Each structure stands twice: as structure tokens, then as C-alpha cells.
């Protein structure tokens, strides 16, 4: 997997495999000297672990070391990266000084800083949302209860829990609301940090919700059904929705993995990326109509918004700069080491469609019918054996009687 994280309109980080590359310019060239390369695997291997954490690191579980998600603090001073090895690394954006590196109990899906940059909020595949201290380690990690009630020695403050995988998190502009999008087509808007208080649900998607963007009191979302929906997240009301985003020659819709809000000619627009299509959709915020389809040379692994109408995508063939105003796509010079890592970068996200094409009740009754047939067959077999056994005993008794009469 490969991630792009812009720091300003020119520089940023690229994460691929176990390395993080600081690039002074992502406009003309994505290059980094040795001082700008972070070996995240080496950082995590230096962190001690207790018995519970050692048991959680299943040696039989073959994990490819990847950066799964990353975030920039609100003041743009710190970077947080969540890894497939169940680690979080927080470091200074300017000089890559590591502030913290700590373990978490489950595979992360989304990470972001809260409004004061004191905590990182992390969701995982089990549907749990937990926050951790970002700038300092806790003085003492005491045994605590997970959101499920189980005792654990891992640090962190549980915020919320659900049975569905969390696919995206976004904070409201004032930092007082946390929206959580999940695999079960739902968006929950909770009070932060008292996330057990659910303010509203935004319901209407027919497939998983993988991406959200917020502007003032409005929330935009998209996902597996490839539609963009606009909500008033304070009431949960659906304001408008788009038609499914797809190319003219395309028969099936592909999931939208990331949407961004940006300003173009004084108007608000959305850019929608699918990690399964070689195209970017530019959508008018006013009526959610598609106004442009910008073709790409490669399928994106990840996308990032730099400033105004400028976006960048990272693909297996390199890094591309896109201008939604001129609808131009330009390939950026990329260092050889990063290009080599990108060639076999993992897919950004597993397929999260749920298999609902079958009838659960019909399958249940079929299994029940088969089970009863097996039981009935077993009963007939046992009765047959018993009858044969009784027949042999009767024949043996008659022979014994005949022998006694002859005697």
C-alpha cells in the first residue's frame, strides 16, 4: 500500500512498505535524500512489549509490513502513521523526530488528530474507536476495559464500538462531533469525546460508506454504491444525492474510495477518486452533477489534495499531479527506490461488499432438511440392524428348541 500526505502546496510525505519518504518538492520531483527516509520497521522493533502484546503478535500470522493510514495534525506540526504491525508512530513533520511509537491491539483502518492535537483517534477492523495520547506517553499503563468489557494492558481510551468495520472518520470543524462511516451503510454522528452519545444517524447508502468530507454543517459521503450524498449532519437529514459515478463505457459501478472538497473559481466542488478506475470525477457541489471526467494513466493507489484544484495520486507507475481547472495530468519525476517499492504495493483496501445475494432463510431450511434426512436415514439403518439381530436370535432359539425335542 502507498500513501500520500501533503504538508503544504509543495512538500509532503510518501509512505510505502516500511519506509516513509520526505519529499521537499512533490510538484516537480518526488525525491528524498537519506536523511529524509524513515525506516518505520526499525522504529517499531525497538519498542518493548509485555506478555499480552507478545501473545497478540501471532508468529503464524504472516503480515506484510505496510503503512495503512496516516494523518497530519491540525497545526501541521506532527504526522501520525498507523501500521499493519499494529503500531502507531507519531513524529515531527519538520525534522522527523519520533515523538511516540506504541502498540495497539487490532489492525487500524483510519487515524486522525483531534482538534487540539493532543490525541490521535484510531478505528480498527473490529469496529472499535479508541483515542491515544499523541504528544506524550502515559505515566503508567494500567489494566483497563475495552469497549467490549474485556480487560487489556494496552493503553488508550475507548470511545465507541460497533459490530461493523469502521472505514472513515471525520471531525466537525469545531471538533465537537465525530462522524463514523462503516461497512453496514451507516454514518453515525457522535458527540466528541463522549462518543457513547449518538447525536444522529445518516442513513441512505445501499453499500458500504468508505469516505466523507465536511464543510460547515454539511457532510458529504460516498462508497460502494458510487453515489455522493449530502447531509445536514446536525439533524441527519439527506439534502441531495448524485447519480452513480461511472464512465460512459462502464457497465458496472465501481466503489468511490475518496472524495475531497475544493474551491474552483469561487465555487465549491468535489473531486471523487475510485481506486478501481483510471479517472477522476469533478462534481458540482450545488447540484452534485458531474461536470468533468479526467482520464488517468494508471489506477490510483491513494490520492491527496494539495491546494485549490491541485491533486496528486500515487500509482504503481509513479506519482501524478492533476489540475482539475485545466484538466491536465502530469507525471512527476520519482526516485528509483520509491518507484521500485511502488511496483508491488498492496491494494489500498480489501473488497468490502457484503454478500447478500443469497437467501439466508432458504439456506437454513435446506440445511435443516438435509439434517433431518440424515437422521431418518440413520434411524432406518439402526432399525434394520436391530431387525436382523432379532431374526438371528429367533432362528437360533428355534434350533435350540428342535435339538431339545430330539433329545
Automatic annotation (TrEMBL):
Required for the Mettl1-dependent formation of N(7)-methylguanine at position 46 (m7G46) in tRNA. In the Mettl1-wuho methyltransferase complex, it is required to stabilize and induce conformational changes of the catalytic subunit. Required for binding of nanos mRNA and repression of translation by the mei-P26-bgcn-bam-sxl complex. May cooperate with mei-P26 and nanos to derepress the BMP signaling pathway. May cooperate with mei-P26 to suppress expression of a subset of microRNAs. May cooperate with mei-P26 to regulate bam expression levels in germline cells during gametogenesis. It comes from the Eukaryota. It comes from Diploscapter pachys. InterPro entries: Trm82 (IPR028884), WD40/YVTN_repeat-like_dom_sf (IPR015943), WD40_repeat_dom_sf (IPR036322), WD40_rpt (IPR001680). GO terms for cellular component: cytosol; nucleus; tRNA methyltransferase complex. It is found in: Nucleus. Its main location: nucleus. WD repeats lie at residues 202-241. Belongs to the WD repeat TRM82 family. Keywords: Nucleus, Repeat, tRNA processing, WD repeat. Residues 375-407 are annotated as: Disordered. This is tRNA (guanine-N(7)-)-methyltransferase non-catalytic subunit. GO terms for biological process: tRNA (guanine-N7)-methylation. Pathway: tRNA modification; N(7)-methylguanine-tRNA biosynthesis. Forms a heterodimer with the catalytic subunit Mettl1. Interacts with mei-P26 and weakly interacts with bgcn; required for the function or formation of the mei-P26-bgcn-bam-sxl complex. Interacts with nanos; may be involved in mei-P26-dependent derepression of the BMP signaling pathway. Interacts with Myc; the interaction may be mediated by mei-P26 and may be involved in the regulation of ribosome biogenesis. The lineage of its organism: Eukaryota, Metazoa, Ecdysozoa, Nematoda, Chromadorea.
Amino acid at each position: 500500500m502507498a500513501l500520500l500526505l501533503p504538508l503544504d502546496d509543495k512538500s509532503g510525505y510518501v509512505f510505502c512498505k516500511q519506509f516513509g519518504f520526505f519529499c521537499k518538492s512533490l510538484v516537480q520531483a518526488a525525491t528524498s535524500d537519506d536523511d529524509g527516509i524513515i525506516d518505520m520497521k526499525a522504529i517499531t522493533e525497538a519498542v518493548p512489549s509485555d506478555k499480552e502484546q507478545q501473545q497478540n503478535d501471532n508468529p503464524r500470522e504472516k503480515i506484510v509490513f505496510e503503512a495503512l493510514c496516516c494523518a497530519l495534525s491540525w497545526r501541521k506540526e506532527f504526522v501520525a502513521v498507523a501500521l499493519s504491525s499494529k503500531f502507531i508512530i507519531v513524529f515531527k513533520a519538520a525534522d522527523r523526530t519520533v515523538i511516540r511509537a506504541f502498540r495497539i491491539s487490532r489492525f487500524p483502518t483510519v487515524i486522525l488528530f483531534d482538534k487540539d492535537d493532543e490525541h490521535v483517534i484510531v478505528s480498527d477492523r473490529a469496529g472499535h474507536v479508541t483515542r491515544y495520547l499523541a504528544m506524550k506517553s502515559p505515566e503508567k499503563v494500567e489494566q483497563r476495559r475495552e469497549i467490549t468489557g474485556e480487560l487489556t494492558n494496552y493503553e488508550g481510551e475507548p470511545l465507541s464500538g460497533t459490530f461493523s468495520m469502521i472505514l472513515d472518520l471525520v471531525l466537525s470543524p469545531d471538533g465537537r462531533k465525530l462522524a463514523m462511516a462503516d461497512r453496514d451503510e451507516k454514518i453515525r454522528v457522535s458527540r466528541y469525546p463522549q462518543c457513547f452519545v449518538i447525536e444522529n444517524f445518516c442513513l441512505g447508502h445501499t453499500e458500504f460508506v468508505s469516505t466523507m468530507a465536511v464543510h460547515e454543517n454539511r457532510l458529504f459521503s460516498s462508497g460502494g454504491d458510487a453515489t455522493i450524498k449530502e447531509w445536514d449532519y446536525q439533524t441527519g437529514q439527506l439534502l441531495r444525492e448524485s447519480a452513480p459515478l461511472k464512465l460512459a463505457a462502464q457497465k458496472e459501478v465501481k466503489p468511490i474510495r475518496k472524495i475531497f472538497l475544493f474551491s474552483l473559481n469561487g465555487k465549491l466542488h468535489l473531486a471523487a477518486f475510485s481506486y478501481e478506475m483510471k479517472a477522476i470525477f469533478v462534481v458540482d457541489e450545488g447540484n452534485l452533477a458531474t461536470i468533468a471526467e479526467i482520464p488517468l494513466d494508471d489506477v490510483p493507489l491513494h490520492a491527496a489534495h494539495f491546494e485549490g484544484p491541485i491533486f496528486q495520486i500515487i500509482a504503481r507507475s509513479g506519482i501524478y499531479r492533476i489540475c482539475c481547472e485545466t484538466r491536465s495530468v502530469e507525471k512527476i519525476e520519482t526516485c528509483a527506490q520509491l518507484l521500485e517499492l511502488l511496483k508491488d504495493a498492496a491494494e489500498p483496501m480489501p473488497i468490502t461488499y457484503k454478500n447478500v445475494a443469497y437467501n439466508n432463510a432458504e439456506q437454513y431450511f435446506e440445511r435443516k432438511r438435509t439434517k433431518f434426512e440424515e437422521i431418518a436415514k440413520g434411524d432406518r439403518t439402526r432399525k434394520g440392524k436391530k431387525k436382523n439381530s432379532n431374526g438371528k436370535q429367533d432362528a437360533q432359539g428355534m434350533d435350540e428348541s428342535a435339538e431339545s425335542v430330539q433329545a
